Amino acid sequence: MRIPPRPPDPSDVWRSADDATQLRMLRVGSSDQGRYLAWDEVRHRQSPEGLTVEQWWTGMRLARDQVARQIPSEPARWRPFTYSLVDPVLEKLHLMDQQAAGRLSAPAPILDPSTRDRYAINGLIEEAIASSQIEGAVATRAAAREMIRQGRKPRDESEQMILNNFAAIRYIAEVRSADLSDEIVLTLHRMLTEGTLEESFAGRFQLPSDERVVVTDVRDGTVVHIPPPAAEIPERMEAMYRFANGVEGGFVHPLVRAIGLHYWLAHDHPFFDGNGRTARALFYWAALRAGYWLTEFVSISRVIVRAPVRYGRAFVYSETDRNDLTYFLIHQLEVLEEAFAGVWGYVEEKQREILAAERLLRSLPSVNHRQRALIGHALRKRGFRYTFQSHATSHGVTRQTARSDLLALAKLGLLDATRQGRRVEFIAPDDLNERLQQR
Edge-to-edge strand order for the sheet containing 416-420? Predict the structure, then answer.
């Protein structure tokens, strides 16, 4: 990724301008046509009449400083994190309040206790896969989903990373009500890096004696961020926990807090490796803790992995513009918006599959909702193999319940049972549609 130039110093530009120019600068708003532009974008645009592009930027920066809020818990000697509640942020926060915390906007299958677990687990799997892919995992989505659902051991480091992510995100859901602390963050990091990082680095912060890790572009090795010294990590983590737990400072919108926590840990980069995965997991912790329960069903990483440069650029824009988190905040709210659109589309697709299966299963009243969902999947995935473990994982039920479901479908002739060693597998037959029509 190309590293953008740092913005000009507003103080220098202001002091060098005459009174009339300073007055023009004071009339400049914080955005341009509703867009919160970075210096890298402003410098290529036509400035307003009577102002140089540097003066235009200074006017924007002064307007932003007037409305900027400082994230609490920062010691005075550190450069604070700030953000501005400009119109694009307020608009998207309102939309997320409706979608991520409300019940009216949620599709019926997510509200239904009998089916919600299936969609939550799908979201967990998608996030585990995509968050690992951002960090370089190369396993295919199909292979990774099969590994998690079947409960098999990972074949390589990429699959191990994905399995670690899946376990860590489930852990996050378990500790959502607890205050953030070293115990939670170090446990989370240890889970995320198990089998993929040297044991001596897993589950511990970097020490002053370690070679300090910097953030580089994975494609060309360009250094994009140098984090604070390792000696500051313990104090910075304690400050981050105070912010995360909301123990001081004024009101911070919960999603601003969650996204700010994501940025903070990635910025401080306290671990030898796994910082990005840990930061994204902490976003989920903060969102779930604040009651944004529908974030459990979405994958922000699936959106990010499709446009990783946008993710990196939003981080760099914030870092190079005096830790103004507004760039990162806007980007992550756009990611959330896209993630919700994706999961709503996924639910609609699955509902169409289930309705199609139900039309064919009307003559079989004994078939339950889990079995209908499996048949809907099997109609689309001929030859797919199901096991007791994969069915139990997909629907959040016990192995015994999964066993009963699959054996009943095999007895009805809707799945073909075969044995692979000690494991029984159930195969979606090529003529499943015909078999349903014959029932």
Answer: 385-386, 423-427, 416-420
